[in-house]
Amino acid sequence: MLGIISLVTGRPGPSGFGSASTAEQVTQGIDASNLTAIITGGASGIGLETARVLALRNAHVIIGARNMDSAKEAKQMILGENESARVDILKLDLCSVNSVRTFVNNFIALALPLNILINNAGVMFCPYQKTEDGIEMQFATNHLGHFLLTNLLLGKMKQTAKESGIEGRIINLSSIAHVYTYEEGIRFDNINEEDGYSDKKAYGQSKLANILHAKELSRRLQEEGANMTANAVHPGVIMTPLMRHSSLLMNFLKMFTFFIWKNIPQVYFLFVLLLLARNFNNTNHDFLYFLILSKQGAATTCFVALHPSLKGESGKYFLDCNEYQPSAQASNQLLGRKLWDFSNKFINSLSKA
């Protein structure tokens, strides 16, 4: 309950920031001119704001995007605001193993260092469909594509950290929706089955995978002694193109977007939230997870990517710029190891096909 009150009121947590903090505020005074960052899905929504703020702090930003027209527009928008910004764009479709490999090859060809990897892109509430590789779309895009991308870039990040002495940081964008998944957490035995498929539980499954991936990666990096961290964040639910696969939810949230305006009295927001909770029946309780509205979607991502206070902090989950305890499944180390092995075997099987 205290977490919800802090969310609604915007009261800062131990970090000094909270749900009302903006991405610019949490990075104020930070000079990232010696850093290079890759941001997947950086052409729109939270990813675009993350790219804009990192570029504002002088980082060299590489935007990985499926839609290159949108990526070009995003680059021009950032340059229009900041003429000295360093922004490059590369094509990346995370639901395609070949596209991920091509992206990495194209990035390596740029001969740049790599300090920060922000696994931001994703899809949400997709009707059942498979990718060109025959994988369920949400698991493929939100987890497996990022898992492969991260593995392929680890060598470059370790090299950069060793040569520069600067800690490398990997950030997975998860969601509070990770608590609403299938009973077993990850459907390892029928990950691609249409039978029993739920668009919302499949999304929760992929977001659970994002946290498990970050925690297991962190454990492995620490065992190796690498100067790198891996964390997961809940950016907050805001109106972004991510909602495009759920018109009902989109229209519902549009009715209430005024709640996230900073000048609306927070007590009124709390009243309406409680009223909504009272009137929702059990069959619709999944929507309540997405009514926890973060006013500043890119703040937590930028905080974990750049803030000096998080040096050495790894294997954690952050919400509203503060460490937060995820679900029991997300904290299950055995489940994390099983997912790691499962993901590796899955990708290897695709490579041999």
UniProtKB/TrEMBL annotation:
Q: Which InterPro entries match?
A: NAD(P)-bd_dom_sf (IPR036291), SDR_fam (IPR002347), TIC32 (IPR055280)
Give the residue range of the signal peptide: none
What Pfam families does this protein map onto?
Answer: adh_short (PF00106)
For this UniProt record, the keywords arranged alphabetically read as follows: Membrane, Transmembrane, Transmembrane helix
Report which superkingdom the organism of origin falls in. Eukaryota
Bilayer-spanning residue ranges:
252-275
Keyword Transmembrane tagged: yes
Q: Which Gene3D superfamilies match?
A: NAD(P)-binding Rossmann-like Domain
State whether keyword Membrane applies. Answer: yes
Question: Record's family?
Answer: Belongs to the short-chain dehydrogenases/reductases (SDR) family.
Kindly give the PANTHER family that the UniProt entry links to this protein: SHORT-CHAIN DEHYDROGENASE TIC 32, CHLOROPLASTIC-LIKE
What's the protein name? Short-chain dehydrogenase TIC 32, chloroplastic
Q: What is the lineage of its organism?
A: Eukaryota, Viridiplantae, Streptophyta, Embryophyta, Tracheophyta
